[in-house]
Amino acid sequence: MNSGPDTDAARGEPGPALDEPSDELVVDVFARHCSSRAALEDVGSKWGILAMLALGEGSYRFNALRRRVEGVSEKMLSRTLQILERDGLLVREVISTIPARVEYSLTPLGERVAAQLRVLADLFEASAADISRARADFDTSRRA
Amino acid sequence: MNSGPDTDAARGEPGPALDEPSDELVVDVFARHCSSRAALEDVGSKWGILAMLALGEGSYRFNALRRRVEGVSEKMLSRTLQILERDGLLVREVISTIPARVEYSLTPLGERVAAQLRVLADLFEASAADISRARADFDTSRRA
Fold it and tell me: In this complex, do B27 and A134 lie within 8 Å of one another by their Cβ atoms?
């Protein structure tokens, strides 16, 4: 089991028990193969956070969402939305008008995640000046 | 007003007023140049979230932190920590023992961010089974 310094067994810390089947659901964001870690990464991705925050405001059509999330390309937004849909955080609904409209909205789980992300975003917005100052100080100290 | 699909002006939504100086601190995570958006991206990055979550448990020495954050390379962890230090979320302390130890711990702002990330991680951990199911369903529907 101890095939390298990076294996669970080598850490001597709690990990999946050795006799558990490998498809056992590991529920620990620190664990490499946990679906919660993977989904956290999806949501945490550059555009994932902003797409979730936007959809936390209400449902959006693709182009409106793209305008809300400043700077995202069509391709990246489309890819991000597909990943979040796959994680069960949002639904893509085709509304049969002429022309057909496609709308994105959060699932109940997505709503809960978005609400938490909003708290985090508020914290960062409230600390924007401190962050800017910390960055300037850091850059100055590196230059010295 | 409508100079392109991606400009603030084209959106007809609140943005920085045109007569504001360009170094005005924009405080909106959706805004391209906001330091809060940049810091949110840093924290949201694949290893950023996990490093913050780990440090939310207490201070860590580099190698112990690397073991806690399963799968991170030395290079990526080092880079991630430097970015988070620059944002004012953590401090790197060199303790002059022989050999010298380097310890990382959160700043007060970092503590608040980590606590919020922990709430998010708990939500994902509690939803790990739902997420796995959503992914399997999505993949099945795509294959059909």
Answer: no
